[in-house]
Write a structure and sequence with these properties.
The structure is a homodimer.
Chain A (H helix, E strand, L loop, with lengths): L6 H4 L16 E2 L11 H6 L17 H11 L6 E4 L1 H14 L5 E4 L5 H8 L4 E4 L19 E4 L11 H10 L5 E4 L20 E6 L12 E5 L1 H11 L9 H12 L1 H24 L3 E2 L6 E5 L5 H10 L2 E2 L12 E4 L3 H17 L1
Parallel strand pairs in A: 3-4, 5-6, 6-7
Antiparallel strand pairs in A: 2-8, 7-8, 9-10, 10-12
Helix pairs in contact in A: 3-8, 4-7, 9-11
Chain lengths: 354, 354
């Protein structure tokens, strides 16, 4: 029981699935699985032996995946919660920590799913304005009684807060949960994970979608002290016992443990980002300082929506948000060097035409 | 807008993910995906080309999977909702249709996740007793103002309702949503799916976990008239944009379309079930008439918990529920013929020892 749990969580009696034993020598007639393998057509989609156990439920606790996450972050299994993408992890965190509490604070310009979750779970919200140069000012979050969500780096700005700013906020609000959404942290931002042992009001959410190239697999996780994780587990076990499937678990573990490849890809993206930002600056764009795998930029003399459309006509898809304060900006994901060369060539042409 | 939607659904403004274009000729810099493939170690878990697109998000609408479900059930894509296992589909259905309505009715002996969801989403419940011989009496559900859930066949009894009983109930409660949970329908029970075009208050939930041997993959679906499906979509898009991953979608489609294999496996399980039930009857067990891939049985002279433990000592795992009315029963999944022969041999020995 943690003081950060919502009333919903306190009263739950989660579903108890049938035992999933680790011994292979059992005749397992306890969870209504099918004794025959899936269709050969289904197995043909996969290779190797990965389909052989698909007839059986996954481990509802995802122990092997939690251990891989814990190992790569220097934490214990009891510090790890895993789910079907970080979007699901965030949704469950809203139910676990924010429902029925005071107004939730987050930046006025941020990931647009936060107000959606808030509405779904009846959470009042208090949007805290970014500064004029789109920075999070942590002192603005010192008042209030509900939780706080800060994406770090923020989206769609890409701007990061240093870890000591996060720590300053944690100290200022010891009775409020601070959820740091680190979906883009691996591209040069300082993670708050190392603060977890010292702050019981810190929950960090990460995903394999971006830095591990696994958006199509749907695996995300939360890290925090064991009481926070226990609250998430109670809600998850009252919602869906098995959110991470057998294949996703195996693929995710392999990706997590290949740290050298992960670092190499992140380094390449960071280098490409810096090159792209420099090119855009030369073309007259104002580019926010990004620590993410995207840049947020605007050109003082050209309409963003016009640029968006012109890029689209040339088969280049970027993102434009119809939202106050940022409707003159474009968010551009960092692709390969070749893709970014093509982008900057097209932008150079479009800026020149003006 | 449907009168069956909960107030939660009416007020939602779901999250809008970045466009996922179908053209392959685009430079896609709009959804912050990674331009590089996942780790070779991760791809080595899989075979063929299935890992090649894992760096990209799945289709948030799962159109190809919905089309496969629609095709195999003689419905339209607009009649289909898909999710991360039927447990997730049920959880989203609770939010969409049951939250904030009158007391939800379901049998006193049934799938034990229903009261858990009810608690999570604050839904009052009205447990309707099964008859003394464990049958659902649909006339007992005629009163009340909230929704109704009936698993058909029921679990853990395995007893099925004929389709015309379901239809009689649909007619009796035109203003209340009836959710028929058909997790086990493919083992000889009449499905309510063909009633969907005629009843706007019917939602049918099915899963690939049992009859398609894909418990480890996490794919379930709901079928109903388009307004019901639209309500589920609004909640899903406020919770998790991409619950079905790229691999799960492909494997599920292949399994759905291989109907011959599916029928063969179901037929084998039904034959094994009938053989097992006959053997157990000969040993003095009372076996409920099952239309599922499990049987529910008790021996008048032997304690169920004792049998459970003795089977466990012999490496056979079955399920026992510590619950009033059924604590003298065992639920036994139908395995292969060889497994069931081993089970009946052990049971014969245990009954003989008595």
């Amino acid at each position: 029981m943690s003081r950060f749990w919502s009333d919903i969580v306190r009263d739950l009696s989660p579903y108890v699935p049938g035992e999933q034993p680790s011994s292979a020598n059992l005749i397992k007639l306890n969870t209504n699985e099918n004794p025959y393998p899936p269709s050969p057509e289904a197995l043909a989609v996969l290779g190797g032996d990965v389909g052989a156990t698909l007839r059986l439920y996954p481990d509802p606790e995802s122990v092997a995946l939690k251990d891989a996450v814990a190992q790569t972050h220097g934490l214990d299994r009891s510090n790890v919660f895993v789910g079907n993408g970080s979007d699901e992890v965030l949704a469950l965190a809203f139910m676990t920590f924010f429902a029925g509490k005071g107004a939730l604070q987050f930046p006025d310009i941020t990931y647009s799913f936060y107000p959606v979750y808030s509405r779904l779970f009846g959470v009042a919200i208090d949007r805290v304005p970014l500064t004029d140069d789109f920075r999070v000012e942590v002192d603005s979050y010192g008042t209030g009684t509900g939780g706080i969500i800060l994406p770090n780096p923020n989206a769609p700005t890409g701007i990061a807060l240093p870890r000591d700013e996060i720590e300053r906020l944690l100290k200022a609000v010891p009775d409020r949960l601070l959820l740091v959404d680190e979906a883009y942290v691996d591209f040069g931002c300082e993670s708050a994970v190392e603060l977890i042992p010292r702050y019981e009001n810190l929950l960090v959410v990460q995903t394999l979608s971006k830095s591990h190239s696994l958006a199509g697999l749907r695996v995300g996780f939360a890290l925090g002290q064991p009481e926070l994780i226990a609250g998430l587990d109670r809600v998850k076990n009252s919602f869906n016992s098995y959110p991470v499937d057998r294949i996703a678990e195996r693929v995710a573990i392999a990706a997590l443990l290949d740290e050298a490849y992960f670092r190499t890809c992140c380094d390449k993206i960071v280098a490409t980002r810096e090159w792209t930002a420099a090119q855009l600056s030369e073309l007259g764009f104002e580019v926010l300082p990004s620590r993410a795998n995207f840049i947020f930029a605007h050109h003082p003399a050209i309409s963003a929506i016009r640029l968006f459309e012109q890029l689209r006509e040339r088969n280049i898809l970027v993102r434009h948000f119809e939202q106050k304060r940022i409707d003159r900006h474009l968010r551009i994901t960092i692709g390969t060097d070749a893709e970014m060369q093509q982008l900057t060539a097209v932008l150079s042409e479009l800026v020149g035409e003006r």
